[in-house]
Amino acid sequence: MKNLHKILTLSIILLVSVVSCKKGDLNLTPINDKTAADVYANPTGYKSALVKLYASFGLTHSSGATDFSDLGGLNPGFSDFLRLFWTSQELTTDEAVCSWGDVGLPELNTSLWSTDNIFLRGLYSRSMYQITVANEFLRESTPEKLASRNISGADADNINKYRAEARFLRAFQYWVLMDGFGNPPFVTENDLIGKVAPKQIKRADLFKYVESELKAIETELPDARSNEYGRADKGAAWALMARLYLNAEVYTGTPKYTEAITYSSKVINAGYTLAPTYKNLFLTDNAATSKNELILTINYDGLRGENYGGTTFLINAAVNAEMDTKSFGIPNGGWGGNRSRSNLPLTFSDYSGNTDKRAMFFGTKLATDDPGVFSDGLRVTKFRNVSSTGVTSPSTNGTFSSLDFPLFRLAEQYLIYGEAVTRGGSGGNAGTALTYFNNLRQRAYGNANGNVAVLNVNLFLDERARELYWEGFRRTDLVRYGKFTAASYLWPFKGGVKAGAGVAETRNIYPIPTADLIANTNLVQNPGY
Predict the structure, then answer these.
(1) DSSP conformation class of 89
(2) What is the DSSP string of 178-203?
(3) Fewest beta carbons less than 10 Å away: which of 138, 170, 272, 341?
């Protein structure tokens, strides 16, 4: 049985002994030599350090929602991983637009971001920071280090298992960089920190590295569905592998749909099942009501892990006062920023939600005539800080969320399997792919009315929008389908034009931040910037 206690519940207590990176310096170790000796002095210290690896996904700093951040040069409230990742994956697409005028946001709305866009630089820095933290853990947990600290036996075995989790978390962040920035700097635990500037790695070579790391730890991770809730296991590694292979042609020029079928099948056959009710996946008791669908989550706690990013951001930014903030579990919240562009609700047969139960919107105006007006476009009501029984989760100030966010869930694997089969991958079955597809539709409709008889490749792009909207997939999906920059598929204000316009194909990946190019002469800017 999975332990349903949230890892982040104790993260603030555990993190006070860990010193963060100096702001803005990605080449510095997050723990100085003296502190490292203290933190890693015993097995308990290693468990605390492992918590930091996971907590860095769900917190901006060990002090919580304060003026401090692990990153420099960015408002601490903006520097959370999920907030930055979501912004890069959704605001630049047909699924979302933001009314706020903060520097850097309007240009993301229009697909005309600058090389120095602060939010893209923030994501780049956040991913590199989390890689740095993982590298530090791996340096301090070698057999030689353990022996020098008189750690052996079962304790050493447990720490070796922690190493596999650290390698997974690092591989995930390298996937984020590979997907978004293509050719980032590359550092592992074997590099001397602060002595030599990191080399740049080509996207195809980074693909090989991530693939090799996930294969290397596959047998070392706990079995699927056997680790503590919120921690990585074989299921998470397989899920990331399936996602990696589905997009392999984008990353390397060579399709790997057969491999995508292989690894999505491993997930599907590992005992996961669809949650009975779609909306419960995005309510605060999802760990109980939807645990069999959730593969890996980022965990949040509105009392003991405050953060203006994460699901606090997803909920508050999509709500304003006219929407009854109490019903969203944020009685003192509601920031009125993010809402849908018309393309998203129009993918549903009935965007008011009367047919497809996944369509969760508020408002009456479908069109986005002015990106700066929150009521222009339907509001997305998918995420709430309430339970499936309507109970509001406790919050320090009536704003923070305790909703855990699914990084991986079974429904994505069904869609990966089906798309890979339809694109010609071997080892799958068209009938099975159709069954998986219709299983999602039956949950959405409550009956077989939404079932389809025949699958095609384009059908999967629309179904991924309906099933996975606002979960951080859309940019990657549009790139894979050749629609992210193309003039053949438009959305309001793409290219800075109300009706939409194509943009340069080089914008399929984001720029390397200028500050890092200046600091590290090994780096070369991506084409087109």
Answers:
(1) I
(2) HHHHSS-EE--TTSPTTTSPPEE--H
(3) 138
